[in-house]
Amino acid sequence: MGSSSELFKVQTLAEAIDSLKPYVLSFYQRVEKIPLAESLGRILTQDIPATCALPHFRKSTMDGMAVRAADTFGASESMPALIECCGEIRMGEAPSKTLEQGTGLLMPTGGMLPEGADAVVMVERLEHFGETLYGVTKAVAPGENLIDIGEDLVEGEIILSEFTRIRAQEMGLLASLGLAYVPVLPRFHVGILSTGDEIIPPEQEPLPGQSRDINGYTLLGQALASGADARYYGIVKDNLEELRKVLAQMLKENDVVLLSGGSSVGLRDLSAQLIGELGEPGLLFHGLALKPGKPTIGGVVDGKLIFGLPGHPASAMVVFDTLVRPLLDGSLLNPQVDPLPKGALSQNLYSGSGREEFVRVRIIPKGEGWQVEPVRGKSGLIRTMVLADAIVHIPLDTEGIEAGKEVSFRLLR
């Protein structure tokens, strides 16, 4: 079991995440099947192969006439190629005729091409000479204005990989394969608790020395935005037995427990004490080489993850975004590989604090690019997070970044 010897042995963010990984893996082995209509934002638990070719028939991309391309070669407005129309293909119907030389079939966009056809002449290139005779005023090449069988998907190929987050386009792709139910990770159940004698509910009028609870609601919003099933448990005063009772309930009802406050060194460091007492392996780290967010604690109690986040609002939000969110949204095991957007820094950023730093910034359009402007303010100010559009990461052992240099940023909105 973790002990007080863990207190403030400051770890890097990467070390803290590595210490949690062995306990997180079991969460990613869970599976539930849900209706496709409810899958937006959920995370796939397995690779999805194409169960059939898509499309499974050749279809037109234009309103026009299905033809044999060779019959149109040399066609021009002054000398159209003559085609005998032998009927019309309707949407949702399979053509019963095979095209012979010099013949064609009228068809809509998305219609199925008949045997013998290898191109479609768009309607704008057709001239009706009366009855069944048409002229083609511009030649088409084989394969023009059509989608071939398997051009979108080939049967058996992996179309979506494990841990893909389902967006609207993935929903459409799954629907095209007839997958009415999809295997996804169950939502993480996250419990959120604010602690401290000075914290009061938002509806109360604060007395001198009291503060309305901000973190309970920012963390609730962040957890919901990460796809979790989150619940706010309210406020507990700095009382060991009361906190023990509520924590025991939260650990029973949730996969992840977030405590706001109670993570700084001192006589009232009750959160760290309780994590070490409630179950195995207990406290894993107390203190991160992170700015803002140094007084962060983390542990595991009988398979449940528990974090003590700083009381300062900006610190708590940054720690959630960098430490907790990757556990909830699957990016811990499936890191984002797309390049982050970049912009030119408007002023010098100094660091060299021995901690990696996450700086709140505003993103301002400038010419064809972006200007990145730091949002100045202490970590106890919630408005700095409201003003911020993004976060810039200053790695460990980097003394700072000069104005004018290009930096990567991760959007918060």
TrEMBL record:
CDD domains: MoeA. It catalyses: adenylyl-molybdopterin + molybdate = Mo-molybdopterin + AMP + H(+). Residues 191-330 form the MoaB/Mog domain. The keyword Magnesium applies. The keyword Membrane does not apply. It comes from the Bacteria. Its cofactor is Mg(2+). InterPro entries: MoaB/Mog-like_dom_sf (IPR036425), MoaB/Mog_dom (IPR001453), MoeA-like (IPR038987), MoeA_C_domain_IV (IPR005111), MoeA_C_domain_IV_sf (IPR036688), MoeA_linker/N (IPR005110), MoeA_linker/N_sf (IPR036135). It is an enzyme of class 2 (transferase). Gene3D superfamilies: MoaB/Mog-like domain (3.40.980.10), MoeA, C-terminal, domain IV (2.40.340.10), Molybdopterin biosynthesis moea protein, domain 2 (3.90.105.10), Molybdopterin biosynthesis moea protein, domain 3 (2.170.190.11). Its EC number is 2.10.1.1. Pathway: Cofactor biosynthesis; molybdopterin biosynthesis. Keywords: Magnesium, Metal-binding, Molybdenum, Molybdenum cofactor biosynthesis, Transferase. Pfam families: MoCF_biosynth, MoeA_C, MoeA_N. Belongs to the MoeA family. Catalyzes the insertion of molybdate into adenylated molybdopterin with the concomitant release of AMP. PANTHER family: GEPHYRIN, MOLYBDOPTERIN BIOSYNTHESIS PROTEIN. This is Molybdopterin molybdenumtransferase. It comes from Desulfosporosinus nitroreducens.
